[in-house]
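Hi V.,

Quick status before I head out on leave. The structure for the redesign project is tokenized and pasted below; the design run finished overnight.
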């Protein structure tokens, strides 16, 4: 649970980040990180279309540069786009201004309105403060499915969704090579289950 749902320490480090939305509303915010890539994003888009669900895609800028047709296809299907830096930059070494510049380079392609999720779900406090001072809205998560993990099966991913989702959850999947095999097995079932529980799917304004 310390992985699937974030510890309070991270809430303290990033006090103005979005971790969970309105806990009084029967709704969830479905997110996909790391794309777009041709091996994963089209499948996810088709599943979402089939179930009439909208999601937020936190895109890596360089992926959007390499696959502009996928960026436009996500837009065409009326999903929300977020910024995941230009090249999935880690938070350990870049100076806060360099970190901001990397995100802005992606923003020049993505035009998200400064909706941002840091790669790996964290950044240095100085980087966080620099982003916030520059007007970025930071979106974290309430449930990370760990669909990227080689230690978890597809059924484990499905169980994480069922076990940890609650009102207002921000749920993180990945449209990536590490995740797509598992998502092809369980994504329709996971989303159908969420619908059956009465959850409404929302995107960030």
């Amino acid at each position: 649970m310390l992985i699937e749902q974030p510890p309070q320490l991270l809430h303290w480090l990033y006090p103005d980040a979005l971790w969970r939305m309105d806990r009084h509303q029967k709704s969830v915010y479905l997110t996909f990180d790391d794309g777009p890539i041709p091996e994963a994003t089209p499948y996810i888009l088709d599943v979402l279309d089939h179930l009439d669900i909208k999601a937020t895609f936190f895109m890596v800028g360089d992926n959007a540069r390499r696959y502009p047709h996928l960026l436009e296809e996500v837009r065409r299907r009326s999903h929300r786009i977020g910024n995941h830096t230009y090249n999935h930059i880690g938070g350990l070494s870049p100076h806060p201004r360099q970190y901001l510049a990397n995100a802005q380079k992606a923003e020049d392609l993505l035009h998200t309105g400064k909706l941002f999720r840091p790669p790996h779900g964290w950044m240095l406090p100085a980087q966080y403060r620099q982003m916030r001072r520059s007007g970025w809205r930071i979106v974290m998560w309430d449930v990370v499915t760990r669909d990227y993990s080689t230690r978890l099966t597809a059924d484990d991913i499905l169980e994480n969704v069922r076990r940890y989702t609650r009102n207002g959850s921000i749920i993180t999947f990945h449209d990536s090579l590490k995740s797509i095999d598992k998502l092809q097995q369980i994504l329709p079932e996971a989303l159908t289950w969420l619908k059956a529980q009465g959850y409404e799917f929302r995107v960030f304004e």
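Above is the designed sequence. The chain has a mean pLDDT of 95.

G. will cover questions while I'm gone.

Best,
W.
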